[in-house]
Amino acid sequence: MSAREWLDKDFYAELGVSSDASADEIKKSYRKLARENHPDANPGNAQAEAKFKAVSEAYGVLSDPDKRKQYDEARRLFGSGGFGGGGQGGFGGFGGQGGFDIGDLFGGGQGGAGGLGDLFGGLFGGRRPGASTANRPKRGADVETEVRIDFTEAVRGATVPLRLSSPATCQTCRGSGAKPGTRPRTCGTCAGSGLVTRNQGAFAFSEPCPDCRGRGQLIDDPCPDCAGEGVSTRSRTLTVRIPAGVSDGQRIRLAGQGEPGRQGAAAGDLYVVVHVNPHRVFGRSGDDLTITVPTTFPELALGTTLTVPTLDGKVTLKVPAGTSSGRTFRVRGKGVGKKDGSSGDLLVTLQVAVPSKLDGKAAEALADYAKATADHDPRQDLNELLGR
C-alpha cells in the first residue's frame, strides 16, 4: 500500500476508538471487532470479510508504538486524507499556495519526494532516491488470534491444532498479483518510480502516479483469486505447541506466521492468546497447584493419613495430631511444569467440614466432649482484649 492510500485511511475510525485511546482500549476494540467479523463466523459474508481485513490492517499500525507515532505525525502534518490533492493539507494545497516542490520542503531534490520518504521512512519503509516507497519490500502485519485449552493442558503443555482465516500470500499468483502466465509491467507514466512531477509556473511538485497509484507497476491481467493484490484470505491449520506452565491470557508468539510481506519482505508474526478453562478441583498460584481437602475434627485432633488427588494420580499425606483447620501442607513436584523441566508444588489446605445435622448418638458424644474440654478456652486471647 502506498503512502497516499495509507494516510487516506482513518485507522482510529476503523477500530471505533478516539485518537488518544490507550493501547489496551485499541486491543480490546480490535478483539471485539475481529471476533464479530471473522470469516469463520460469517461464511460467505463479503462485507464482514472486508471489515475483518480493515480492522486487522488498522490494528497492525496502531498496536505498534513506533508506527502509531509516525502515523499520528503524518496525519497532523497533512490531515486525514491529506495526500488527496487540492486540499489545504495536501500536495495540491502546498502547490496552490506558492507552487513549490513538496520534496524541497523536506529536503528532497527536484521532482522528488526523497525528503518526504525519509520523514516517513519508519512508517512506509525507507526509500532509495528515484524509487517509490510503494515498491519497497514491506514486512507483513502481525496477526492475533485466540485458543482455549483445558487446565491440565496448561499445566503440562499440549500440542493443539489452530484453524485460521487470515490474509496470506495468494497461492494462485504466488504474490505477484498477476494472472498465472502473465507478469506485471513497469508503469510507463512514472517509469516505475511511482511518482510523477507536475509543473506549476516556475515550480514543480511530485505526487503519486495516478495510473499505477504509486505502485510503479501495472497489472493488465489481475489474478482472479486475489484481484491483483497478491494477498488473499484463506483458511489454514497450524499445529501450535503450548508450553507447560502457560497462564490464562498469556500471548504466544509464532514468528513468521502473520500476514505475508510485500515485494519479498518477511511475513509478520502470529500472536496466540491462550485462555485456560478452570478446574473443578484444583486452583493455581504461580507455579504451584492448590487444593482444599475437607477433613473431620477427629482427623485433625488425633492425626491421620489422607489420600490426596494430584494431576498425576494420588499421594498420601501424613497429618500430625493437633493440626489446626486451615493449615497448608506442601507436596513437592506435583505442581505446574516449568521451562527448565522441573515442576512446582501442590499446596494442600486442610479444612474442617462441619456436619449440617447430627443424629442422637453423635450429638450426645459431642456434648460429652464439650464437657470434657470445658476448661479449654480457644478464645482466651480475645476475651482478655475484651476485659473479661
Short description:
The chain is an alpha+beta fold and 388 residues long.
Structure in words:
- The chain has helices at 3-7, 11-15, 23-37, 46-62, 65-78, 91-96, 102-105, 114-119, 121-124, 151-156, 297-302, 360-372, 380-385, and strands at 143-149, 158-169, 185-186, 195-200, 203-208, 217-218, 231-242, 251-254, 270-276, 283-285, 288-295, 304-310, 313-319, 328-331, 346-352.
- The N and C termini lie far apart (82 Å).
- A four-stranded mixed β-sheet has the order 10-11-15-14. A three-stranded mixed β-sheet has the order 1-9-8.
- The chain is 28% helix and 24% strand.
- It has a domain at 283-385: HSP40/DNAj peptide-binding domain, CATH 2.60.260.20.
- With 388 residues, the chain is of the alpha+beta class.
- The longest helix is centred in the N-terminal third of the chain and has 17 residues, at 46-62.
- Residues 157-235 form the CR-type domain.
Q: Top keywords for this entry?
A:
single chain, DnaJ_domain, metal-binding, four-stranded mixed sheet, alpha+beta, 28% helix, 13 helices, 388 residues, heat shock protein binding, three-stranded mixed sheet, ATP binding, HSP40/DNAj peptide-binding domain, zinc-finger, elongated
The main sheet orders its strands as 10-11-15-14
In the predicted model, the low-confidence regions spanning at least 5 consecutive residues are: 81-132
**Remind me, CATH topology of the domain at 283-385?**
HSP40/DNAj peptide-binding domain
Main sheet specs:
4 strands, mixed
The CATH superfamily label of the domain at 283-385 reads Urease metallochaperone UreE, N-terminal domain
Large-scale geometry: elongated
Order of helices and strands: HHHHHHHHHEHEEEEEEEEEEHEEEEHH
CATH architecture of the domain at 283-385: Sandwich
CATH class of the domain at 283-385: Mainly Beta
Q: Could you give the distance between the termini?
A: 82 Å
Strand content: 15-25%
**How many DSSP H or I helices?**
13
Family: Belongs to the DnaJ family.
Main location: cytoplasm
Protein name: Chaperone protein DnaJ
Zinc finger (CR-type): 157-235
